[in-house]
């Protein structure tokens, strides 16, 4: 057994770390307050192939692996979880299913610009009445000659307002339940497609989260992704790999917060000693350090399993559950270590705490991960 | 156009340890980076490649682990990387280093050679100029701007109080300063492609056909008598004042100690 990263993975980490320190960290606090989408960094990340890490070069990808992708999300998240979710939503949730289930024509048309970062992608599954119970899809798609007509709406869609390519789930046969769900590739300029409500959020505030509205939206027949009726299964597989992205994000947030604590504990003096000299706090950070290490091992194991072509759904669920809960615990306790300062915007830890919360919710809540893990355990 | 970039891997810290016997640096256990000025040199070569087309070869003399710096160069976009590495090179001063690099460069085609101004470990700023002298080609140091013109280059050389514009025919050696450009990041696709398709060539002393008397400790006229870490002198005085009073306070202290 070998726990060392490859030379490629090490260089990816070094590159993304340098990029994060120079480009991402300096604007992270500002874009959180102003909710400004960091378009300048999207262009720079695209130029360095950060949107296509695990995809084949013939589709515009970097020809890398999923562990490297996880490392990229982890490193970005140490400074800014907004920036990392823009990448992971586009890569895991939109480019991912097109790569896995798309035809050659669909890949050339849609996957290439997503991998190159020329276009951003988004994934639409959640609806007002279909959250954790994703089977309750009410958006419908009706075949009409050479096109489908979509009607309905999606909510809480990451990259909703900035994406140009969407992978959308809709019912093609309501009588068949989950087996009546299909997936479509939708362009933002298709007639009948529009952006609805723009959410104002607790965290990841500079990312775009919106409602998508389909009003007699015309989608060409050739934009059906995979086969009719296979949409639910494809969505679940998409979320399996997407969860590795969210787990990596949670891991990065936790690592970033813990690093802030390390610096602060060495600087800040109370009772004539630096905080790092107090055993109560030493034990607190020791426990957090172990949890972060565990989270990293779970995340890399899930990603490495995917790279090896092994089943990784349960591994991804474990990684996401543990990394998200670790991110929440670490950021909450690091705010506590900072005391009053931690509660202000003078330090980044309050932002990290707000950002951490979403990792316990999106792409399957912690409770959903437990359902997945328990179902596997008890089968 | 063929461009050769000379590059050095250096320790990523000012806290380097020094071998008490030889007075040379102990590199083991210290994280290593591409020397910052050399990164500017590489960036300029890559910029010229982007704008005018060029074949960029990176050459470094160093121990086997310097391969990483060359791998980073390939990931930034260099076409070829050569590590000049041999036990015979150990303990080289700047002259012996230049002799080794020159022997390697002579095996390559070049119109322009880029080097960094100086390395952060030795701070000598000698290797670039020595390579030009040994090759018998013109050199321009402290370069802050480069343009390609018919038959050569138009180069802006920085001075303390301004700059000088020089037109020069190739082949020429230029040494880069940080004002020259902003080095690019490694490209992620390049990272995977270069490990799949590119080798870092390793050339030994025999491969480059160098005179071994001119290499390593033997070829190094520089004898380091003693190296030491500079002791911090005196004690800091910490005062908290509004900006204007703080400035006055600093000036008064500088006067008191006859610095101004």
User: Mind summarizing the main beta sheet of chain A?
Assistant: 4 strands, mixed
Percent range for β-strand residues of chain B: 25-35%
Q: Main sheet of chain B: which strands, in order across?
A: 11-10-9-12-8-1-6-7-13
Major sheet characteristics of chain B: 9 strands, mixed
Net shape of chain B: globular
Under CATH, the homologous superfamily of the largest domain in chain A reads: Butyryl-CoA Dehydrogenase, subunit A, domain 3
Write the H/E string of chain A, N to C. HHHHHEEEEEEEEHEEHHHH
The helix count of chain B comes to 6
Number of domains of chain B: 1
Q: What's the number of domains of chain A?
A: 3
Class derived from helix and strand content of chain B: alpha/beta
Question: Distance N terminus to C terminus of chain B?
Answer: 51 Å
List low-confidence stretches of chain A. Answer: none
Report the total helices of chain A: 10
List keywords for this structure.
heterodimer; A: 379 residues; Butyryl-Coa Dehydrogenase, subunit A, domain 1; Butyryl-CoA Dehydrogenase, subunit A, domain 2; Butyryl-CoA Dehydrogenase, subunit A, domain 3; 3 domains; 10 helices; 10 strands; 16% strand; B: 260 residues; alpha/beta; two-stranded antiparallel ribbon; 6 helices; 13 strands; 26% strand
């Amino acid at each position: 057994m070998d726990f060392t990263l490859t030379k490629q993975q090490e260089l990816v980490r070094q590159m993304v770390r340098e990029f994060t320190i120079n480009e991402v960290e300096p604007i992270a606090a500002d874009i959180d307050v102003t909710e400004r989408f960091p378009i300048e960094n999207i262009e720079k990340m695209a130029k360095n192939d950060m949107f296509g890490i695990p995809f084949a070069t013939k589709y515009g990808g970097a020809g890398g692996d999923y562990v490297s992708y996880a490392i990229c999300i982890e490193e970005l998240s140490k400074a800014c979880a907004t920036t990392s979710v823009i990448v992971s939503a586009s890569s895991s949730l939109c480019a991912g299913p097109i790569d896995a289930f798309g035809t050659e024509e669909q890949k050339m048309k849609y996957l290439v610009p997503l991998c190159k970062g020329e276009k951003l992608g988004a994934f639409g599954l959640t609806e007002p009445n279909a959250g954790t119970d994703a089977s309750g899809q009410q958006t419908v798609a009706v075949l009409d000659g050479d096109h489908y007509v979509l009607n309905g709406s999606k909510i809480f869609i990451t990259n909703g307002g900035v994406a140009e390519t969407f992978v959308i789930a809709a019912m093609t046969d309501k009588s068949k339940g989950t087996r009546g769900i299909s997936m479509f590739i939708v362009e933002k300029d298709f007639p009948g497609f529009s952006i609805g409500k723009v959410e104002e959020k607790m965290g990841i505030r500079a990312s775009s989260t919106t409602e998508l509205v389909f009003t007699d939206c015309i989608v060409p027949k050739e934009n059906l992704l995979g086969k009719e009726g296979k949409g639910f299964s494809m969505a679940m597989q998409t979320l399996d790999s997407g969860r590795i992205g969210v787990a990596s994000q949670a891991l990065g947030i936790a690592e970033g917060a813990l690093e802030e604590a390390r610096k602060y504990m060495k600087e800040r003096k109370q009772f004539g000693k630096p905080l790092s000299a107090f055993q109560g706090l030493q034990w607190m950070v020791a426990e957090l350090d172990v949890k972060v290490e565990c989270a990293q091992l779970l995340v890399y194991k899930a990603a490495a399993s995917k790279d090896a072509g092994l089943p990784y759904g349960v591994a991804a669920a474990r990684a996401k559950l543990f990394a998200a809960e670790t991110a929440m615990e670490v950021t909450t306790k690091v705010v506590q270590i900072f005391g009053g300062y931690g509660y202000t915007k003078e330090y980044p830890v309050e932002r990290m705490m707000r950002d951490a919360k979403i990792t316990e919710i999106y792409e399957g809540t912690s409770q959903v991960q437990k359902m997945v893990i328990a179902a596997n355990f008890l089968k | 156009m063929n461009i050769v970039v000379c590059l050095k891997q250096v320790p990523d810290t000012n806290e380097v340890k020094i071998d008490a016997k030889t007075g040379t640096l102990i590199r083991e256990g210290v994280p290593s980076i591409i020397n910052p000025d050399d990164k500017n040199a590489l960036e300029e070569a890559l910029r010229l490649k982007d704008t005018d087309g060029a074949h960029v070869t990176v050459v470094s003399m160093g121990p086997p682990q310097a391969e990483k710096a060359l791998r980073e160069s390939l990931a930034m976009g260099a076409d070829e990387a050569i590590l000049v590495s041999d036990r015979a090179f150990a303990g080289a001063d700047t002259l012996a280093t230049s002799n080794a690099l020159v022997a390697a460069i002579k095996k390559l085609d070049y119109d322009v050679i880029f080097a960094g101004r100086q390395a952060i470990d030795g701070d000598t700023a000698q290797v670039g100029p020595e390579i030009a002298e040994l090759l018998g080609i013109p050199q321009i140091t402290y370069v802050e701007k480069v343009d390609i013109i018919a038959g050569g280059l138009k180069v802006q050389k920085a001075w303390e109080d301004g700059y000088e514009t020089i037109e020069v025919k190739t082949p020429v050696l230029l040494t880069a300063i940080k004002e020259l450009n902003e080095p690019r990041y490694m490209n992620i696709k390049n990272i995977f492609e270069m490990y799949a398709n590119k080798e870092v060539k390793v050339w030994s002393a025999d491969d480059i056909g160098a005179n071994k008397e001119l290499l390593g400790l033997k070829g190094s006229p520089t004898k380091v008598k003693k190296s030491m870490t500079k002791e911090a002198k005196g004690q800091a005085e910490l005062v908290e004042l509004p900006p204007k009073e703080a400035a006055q306070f600093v000036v008064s202290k500088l006067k008191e100690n006859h610095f101004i």
